[in-house]
TrEMBL record:
Protein name stated in the entry: 6-phosphogluconate dehydrogenase, decarboxylating
GO terms for MF: NADP binding; phosphogluconate dehydrogenase (decarboxylating) activity
Transmembrane segments: none
Any single biological process term in GO: D-gluconate metabolic process
Family: Belongs to the 6-phosphogluconate dehydrogenase family.
Cited InterPro entries: 6-PGluconate_DH-like_C_sf, 6PGD_dom2, 6PGDH_C, 6PGDH_Gnd/GntZ, 6PGDH_NADP-bd, 6PGdom_BS, NAD(P)-bd_dom_sf, Pgluconate_DH
Gene for this chain: GND1
EC class: oxidoreductase
């Protein structure tokens, strides 16, 4: 065994593929696991013949690392991360770097970053996406935290990450908890993509009465065009996969979707920031509705709806319309996700590189797609782009998709096939492009029942209503003259 010091230490062997990936790129790794017998087994099997070394204690791990020490934690999010940090610190020096590569909630990463910096250490919270295959052959890495740490980990991270067109799917995200924030939004977008695809599947299955093999062929074709992506690709493969009896396995799977919380975190954060990230929210709620299996079965027996009649139009045209509807809805979802990151950056003082974020997602991760290259280009052409919907490329794409998008939404509604994600995407699109929405009536109602006040529309001022002023009207003879500033019901 080589006596040379390791470039990086890694705690947690659940994702040992990442260690093997680093070794492939001549990065010397020292591996440690709380159950030390797993370290020995790893060294004697998967890591045999490599330059990977092991440690049987935190102290030994730290003693085998180059300075500044770089330690990556790949452990369960939450208390385990704090516990390992506490164990590491006595054996580390100021300027050493602790990297949390787990699925931590970004406020925890912000707290850890500030706490460690106050003690002279550096912290990085890095989103990691791509699953087992990504870990082995190149994940998408989203590091953020102590900026001073980046020069010391850049080479390791960018060599380990997936490569697209000669560029690593990894770049510095920003300060404190921004790395895990971007990963959280990535996961929320993943929820949205999966829901959109499942709705398209449902429309083809129940609306057009197509078999799983026929739908797989459609997804295969879609994967050669604007929808070319990992999720479309695996959907094609899933639909073709047969059980031992020759029946598609997907048709036997209970229709109750699980979730681990990152989609919910994104939806909650959107509400906290007041950002209309409607598609991810609907995707989360759709999973919640799917879990009410017994209740849905009872409702299907007792609550009538429209009959799904045989489609009498041009079937191929409708399939083409559905492709465009899925593409347009996907554009809306990503636009909403970047709107949320824009607001979070403003509130938290992060200088996020939107082009870099989109580029990180082009490969190695679950939402990787050709489409992300177009987003990267849009932000590289205009780093201050207010919304993807203002980018000429996406304006043209939505103009092309719009007729079919509307036809699909209308037909699904007539069939009674639920399309929460597609439906909210189109509603957001129409709301976003509407100069005057009916919120004026809501403001009048709020002032009527709660004296919440309103502001007057520019151009509608008069002697007693001026632009910019908070105005309360006596709607009835019993209305008071005092406006409310604290009543929020």
């Amino acid at each position: 065994m080589s006596s040379e010091l390791a470039d990086v230490g890694l705690i947690g062997l659940a994702v040992m593929n990442l260690i093997l990936n680093m070794n492939d790129h001549n990065i010397k790794v020292c591996a440690y696991n709380r159950t030390t017998s797993k370290v020995d087994h790893f060294l004697e099997n998967e890591a045999k013949g490599t330059n990977i070394i092991g440690a049987h204690s935190i102290e030994e791990l730290c003693s085998k690392l180059k300075s500044p020490r770089r330690v990556i934690l790949l452990v369960k999010a939450g208390q385990a991360v704090d516990d390992f940090i506490a164990q590491l610190l006595p054996h580390m020096d100021k300027g050493d770097i602790i990297i949390d590569g787990g699925n931590s909630h970004y406020p925890d990463s912000t707290r850890r970053c500030l706490e460690l910096e106050s003690k002279g250490f550096l912290f990085v919270g890095s989103g990691v996406s791509g699953g087992e295959e990504g870990a082995r052959y190149g994940p998408s890495l989203m590091p953020g935290g102590s900026t001073a740490a980046w020069p010391h980990i850049k080479d390791i991270f960018q060599k380990t990450a997936a490569q697209v067109k000669g560029e690593p799917c990894c770049d510095w995200v920003g300060g404190t908890g921004s790395g895990h924030y971007v990963k959280m939004v990535h996961n929320g977008i993943e929820y949205g993509d999966m829901q959109l695809i499942s709705e398209a599947y449902d429309i083809l299955r129940r609306g057009l009465n197509l078999s799983d093999d026929e739908i797989a062929d459609i997804f295969a074709k879609w994967n050669t065009g604007v929808l070319d992506s990992f999720l479309i690709e695996i959907t094609r493969d899933i639909l073709r996969f047969k059980d031992t009896d020759g029946e598609p396995i997907v048709a036997k799977i209970l229709d109750a979707a699980g979730q681990k919380g990152t989609g919910k975190w994104t939806a909650i954060d959107a509400l906290d920031y007041g950002m209309p990230v409607t598609l991810i929210g609907e995707a989360v709620f759709a999973r919640c509705l799917s879990s009410l299996k017994a209740e849905r079965v009872r409702a299907s027996e007792q609550i009538p709806g429209p009959t799904v009649e045989a489609f009498k139009g041009d079937k191929q045209q409708f399939i083409d319309d559905l492709e465009q509807a899925l593409y347009a809805s996907k554009i809306i979802s990503y636009a909403q996700g970047f709107m949320l990151m824009r607001e979070a950056a403003t509130v938290n003082g992060w200088d996020l590189n939107n082009a870099g974020i989109a580029a990180m997602w082009r490969g190695g991760c679950i939402i990787k797609s050709v489409f992300l290259g177009d987003i990267t280009d849009a932000y590289r052409q205009n780093k201050d782009l207010e919304s993807l919907l203002f980018a000429p490329f996406f304006q043209q794409a939505l103009a092309k998709a719009q007729p079919g998008w509307r036809r699909v939404n209308a037909q699904a509604t007539l069939w009674g096939i639920p399309i929460p994600a597609h439906g909210t995407a189109l509603s957001f699109f129409d709301g976003y492009r509407t100069a005057v929405v009916p919120a004026n009536l809501i403001q009048a109602q709020r002032d009527y029942f709660g004296a919440h006040t309103f502001k007057v529309m520019p151009g509608k001022e008069n002697d007693h209503m001026k632009t910019g002023q908070d105005i309360h009207v006596k709607w009835t003879a019993t209305s008071g003259n005092v406006s409310s500033s604290t009543y929020n019901a």
